[in-house]
Amino acid sequence: MFSNGHQTSPPQPPPTTSTTPVTTQNPPQLLPITTTTTTTTTHDPKKLTLIPLIFLIYFEVAGGPYGEEPAVQAAGPLLAILGFLIFPFIWSIPEALITAELSTAFPGDGGFVIWADAAFGPFFGSLMGTWKFLSGVINIAAFPVLCVDYLQNIFSVFSGGYPRYLAVTLSTLLLSFVNYLGLSIVGYFAVFLGIISLLPFIVMSLIAIPQIKPHRWLSLGQKGVKHDWNIFFNTLFWNLNFWDNVSTLAGEVKNPQKIFPKALFIAVIFTCLAYIIPLMAVTGAVLVDQSEWEAGFMAQAAEIISGKWLKLWIEIGAVLSGIGLFEAQLSSSAYQVLGMAELGFLPKIFGVRSKWFGTPWVGIVLSTVITLSVSFMNFTDIISSANFLYSLGMLLEFASFVWLRRKYPAMKRPFRVPMGIPGLVVMCLVPSAFLVFIMAIATKVVYLVSGLMTVAGVGWYFFIKYCKAKKWFKFSENGDKFITVGNGEGLAAPAFYLYLCSLCNFSNS
Questions:
Q1: Which residues pair with 30 in a beta bridge?
Q2: 239-274 burial, b if ≥16 CB within 10 A, otherwise e?
Q3: DSSP count for the chain of H helices, then E strands
Q4: CA 184/CA 46 separation, integer angstroms
Q5: Can you list the alpha helix ranges (DSSP code H) found in 286-420?
Q6: Residue 7: its pLDDT value, please?
Q7: How far apart are CA 174 and CA 183, in angstroms?
Q8: Under 8 Å CB-to-CB from 368, ≥6 apart: which residues?
Q9: pLDDT, tens only, 439-470
Q10: CB neighbours of 340 closer than 8 A, spacing ≥ 6?
Q11: What angle, rounded to 10 degrees, do the helices at 297-305 and 256-285 form?
Q12: Which value, to the nearest 10 degrees, does the dihedral of the CA atoms of residues 203, 207, 209, 212 take?
């Protein structure tokens, strides 16, 4: 089922005899060994450790408060603050929990593609790969654009025309080359970029404390300004999603069963604080026309609060943050391509690694080319299209998560969300309702783009199937290998926070 799409379900376990007490022991189950899992044990570059993984997750999701400003412009300070306080509980935490369980149960570079394939078969695995890959590369295209948006505040030459297009193109190519140099380098680079890009916001928030007027937090926006719910919810969604992107790096992590849950927990707290503290500082200390709260306004607010020196520092930090976002998400997209090649969803050529750095250079090139092709879209269109495709993928991911619990109840799960299937269904229904809402308020352009990409994804699956039948390309062939999954259900802590807090002993990592 995992390797080449020919088998859709594993062999049934031996029947339990009447003398075996089924209430005390579950029968073993047989699961396929994926190429990714095999590669994880044989290919051993410098593996990611806890701290670099935390910052890669941070950059997969956020990278700092850059880009949260449109939420205030769309709905006012109060709703923006409430959005960044509440949304993590209905979206970020459930997504992080699912990622922790499935990444530790299936620690391979395919990530969510493996999950959908295991749950529903190769067609849905391929479709998941299409949705998530395209949403990822579309999302990546936003970061060079966002960097140039900040740079144009310093150098007006980048405000439009050929200089702007040239800046976006060259920065995309240069950053893609950095990704080629190695995932461990990208991980430690992310640590450096995360610290440096957050420092000016820490300084700004401290300086703003005496200037804060708490009643400003209660504003629902200026009178006569209509709330733009499309921009508001897409901004929240774009700034707080993509937690599962790191799953495609699971095969490159040292001891993922132990490190993944710990890294996700720390990253959730870290990310939420990085958003809410500067947002409350600026909305409380700065009173400006609501229309000025557009992408890049944090730098203007820094000048109002303290002076041009802080504005310049934040603009430099924005560029560094954009670099971190680009590098982290390009890594996930490239390793997803590698994982899909190892699973047989793509020809073997897509899984080729660099001889010098061990990086999936074909995946990097493919992701870069698609990123450049959508860079002409404006910032709002980019995040809206990425959100729609990502929503489709997440609905399939939630369904895969619940179905895998039912399909393989005895599978060992090193981290296990402490709920039964009814609780998991409820946990997934709340964010699923939000996903449907996000999709319902999309524009016609987003519907058109997303629909065409989905049709292309379906066509791609059948094209690959035809290529296999005609033997036009070489595909990964691993045979039908299976391993026996132990009787244990994995770790079921009494509460998510208690369990993860117990993991936060860095000396054991």
A1: 484
A2: bbbbbbbbbbbbbbbeebbbbbbbbbbbbbebbbeb
A3: 18, 2
A4: 6
A5: 297-305, 308-342, 361-373, 379-407
A6: 39
A7: 16
A8: 172, 173, 176, 330
A9: 887 888 888 888 888 999 999 999 999 999 98
A10: 110, 113, 129, 133, 346, 350
A11: 60
A12: -110
Structure tokens at 421: 């299937």
> pTM higher than 0.85 for the full model?
no
The model's pLDDT over 66-90, given as tens digits with 9 standing for 90+, comes to 889 999 999 999 999 999 999 999 8
Residue holding tokens 């997803």? 336
344 close to 4: Cβ distance less than 8 angstroms: yes
> What is the distance between the alpha carbons of residues 254 and 41, in angstroms, rounded to a whole number?
11
Letter string b/e over residues 205-236, b meaning 16 or more CB atoms within 10 A of that residue's CB: bebbeeebeeebbebebeeeeeebebbbbbbb
**Contact (CB, 8 A) for 473 and 423:** no
User: Mind spelling out the 3-state secondary structure of 396-443?
Assistant: HHHHHHHHHHHHCCCCCCCCECCCCHHHHHHHHHHHHHHHHHHHHCCC
Q: What's the helix, strand, coil split of the chain in %, to 5?
A: 70, 0, 30
Q: Tokens 């299209």 belong to which residue?
A: 385
Within 13 A of 189's CA, how many CA atoms are on the CB side?
Answer: 19
Partner residues linked to 32 by β-bridges: 482
Of 122-131, 414-423, 458-467, 494-503, minimum mean pLDDT range? 494-503
| pLDDT at position 115 | 96
Residues 92-135 have pLDDT tens digits of 999 999 999 999 999 888 899 999 999 999 999 999 999 999 88
The residue-averaged pLDDT of 484-501 equals 38
State the Cα–Cα distance between residues 401 and 393, nearest whole angstrom: 12
Residues 296, 318 contacting (CB under 8 angstroms): yes
307 vs 10, higher pLDDT: 307
Give me 50's structure tokens. Answer: 């806890």
Supply the DSSP symbol for 30: E
3-state secondary structure of 484: strand
Find where tokens 């005390």 sit: 24
pLDDT over 90 percentage in the chain:
52
Task: Compute the C-alpha angle 24/25/27, nearest 5°.
Answer: 155
